[in-house]
Amino acid sequence: MRILISTFREGDLEKLTLAMRRLPYDKLVILGTAPDTGSTSLSTVRMLEEMAGHEVEVDELDDEDFLTLVDEVSAVLSKHSLDPETNKRNSIALNISGGSKLLGDASLFAAFRMGIETYHCENRVTKLPVIRGATARDRFTPMQLELIRAIGRGQVVYDNIVRLMGPASKQATDRLIRELKKQGILGSEFRANRIFVFLTDTGREVLNAIRLAERTESR
Amino acid sequence: MVVIFGTLGYRPKSLIPTIRSTPNVEKVVFYYGIDHADKEASSKVPEARKSVIDYCKNMKIAVDPVELPDVYDFKNIAMRIRNDIRKHKREGKEIAVFNIAGGTKPTSSAALLACILEGVPTVYVHDRTYEEIHLPLLRMEYNEVLSKEEQEILRTLSKNRSKDLTEVELASLLNKHKATVNHHIKNLISKGAVRLEKHNEDARKKIVRIEESAELLLGDDL
């Protein structure tokens, strides 16, 4: 199934109808915050879709915090990635031209996180350079991904990492830690005579991408 | 030299906190433009521009205000910003951060895109609290998602943009077997980087076209 997911707020009818005309879809999903999901413009969109024999799905988001919004948009993209009836992968096109600036940017961020085809529809349709299916996870080797998963969201004592990464040798684990520290994925600190290793903000973003991809694949 | 980039709309307070909080800033480059459909923009944007310039002058920081001719032209804004970032990098300047909080929505999103493609640290400033939020961006590097052969095909297609190249013609240009080229084209289609179009004169033939987005991704490296 082809799904068009579009950010939206009151006054964005023109941008949305441009996307609806230019991007073929079977189902329309609107992303917006509470005041916008009850707007007059949205009623018009519902009416247009009803005329075509379809319903509009509206996902309400919390517009307070950028990274929360990124997670919320990612969750919506993940939810629609598979057709629950046929268990086949849906083809998703995301239009980020509607809604607030915060929502548009968060949606673009989520699109790169999940490798979703993305467009900006305003006066003209611009396809954005998100490579379909390519996510942060693709940039790491299986061993690097295992280390990122092993560390997770907490701080892990270095000796425990070596144990968690077994049967990989201590030297191999050291090399992985060095590589990921160089890429800004890991940080470390010396405290109470022990070395603690943790994921940086970017590392946590990679962990999010790994978990989202795994969740989508396991469905 | 430490440089800060930013986008600016009505509110200088969305950019100035980043100048304040970044150590050793020597230059500020900011993008602004007037939305002529917005009545307030013609007075408020120049006021915001003046405030940022005054702040920088008082702080003895060099400032480069860049006026965007069309604040809704997503693609050209993204390309302009990306080229400027690359120019600064080539000159050995350190881009400390890009503040994407100000300006129109297409301007801010285009700046975010350029930051993702160039791996520039990015901040957002909260609308009400003016708190800086650092975005955990990972650089999107096309050599990690496209094979060498795929990159070569995209470069060739881009250079021959005006020509209607079929897969066979492309294979001949690249000096590769048509089955090999066909395999890579299929991969590039599945990644959304190229598309096939019907040939105007011969319905049996298909023309291979590079997507505009792939050119945005590859940037000057083409």
Fraction of residues in helix of chain B: 40-55%
Biggest sheet record of chain B: 6 strands, mixed
Topology as H/E string of chain B?
EHEHEHEHEEHHHHEEH
| Head-to-tail CA distance between termini of chain A | 16 Å
What is the N-to-C succession of helices and strands of chain A?
EHEHEHEHEEHEHHEEH
What are the main properties of this structure?
heterodimer, A: 219 residues, alpha/beta, Rossmann fold, Arc Repressor Mutant, subunit A, 6-stranded mixed beta sheet, 3-stranded antiparallel beta sheet, 8 helices, B: 222 residues, two-stranded antiparallel sheet, 9 helices, 8 strands, 20% strand
What's the SSE blueprint?
The complex is a heterodimer of chains A (219) and B (222).
Chain A: E1 2-7, H1 13-22, E2 27-33, H2 40-51, E3 56-61, H3 66-79, E4 91-95, H4 101-114, E5 117-122, E6 124-127, H5 142-151, E7 155-157, H6 158-164, H7 170-182, E8 186-191, E9 194-199, H8 201-218
Parallel strand pairs in A: 1-2, 1-4, 2-3, 4-5
Antiparallel strand pairs in A: 5-6, 7-9, 8-9
Helix pairs in contact in A: 3-4, 3-8
Chain B: E1 2-7, H1 16-21, E2 25-32, H2 41-58, E3 62-67, H3 74-90, E4 94-99, H4 105-118, E5 122-125, E6 132-135, H5 142-145, H6 148-159, H7 167-174, H8 178-190, E7 194-198, E8 206-210, H9 212-218
Parallel strand pairs in B: 1-2, 1-4, 2-3, 4-5
Antiparallel strand pairs in B: 5-6, 7-8
Descriptive overview:
The complex is a heterodimer of chains A (219) and B (222). The mean pLDDT of chain A is 86. Chain A has helices at residues 13-22, 40-51, 66-79, 101-114, 142-151, 158-164, 170-182, 201-218, and strands at 2-7, 27-33, 56-61, 91-95, 117-122, 124-127, 155-157, 186-191, 194-199. By secondary structure, chain A is of the alpha/beta class. Chain B contains 9 helices and 8 strands. Chain B has a 6-stranded mixed sheet, sandwiched between helices. A two-stranded antiparallel ribbon of chain B has the order 7-8. In chain B, β4 (94-99), α4 (105-118) and β5 (122-125) form a beta-alpha-beta unit. The longest helix of chain B has 18 residues, at 41-58.
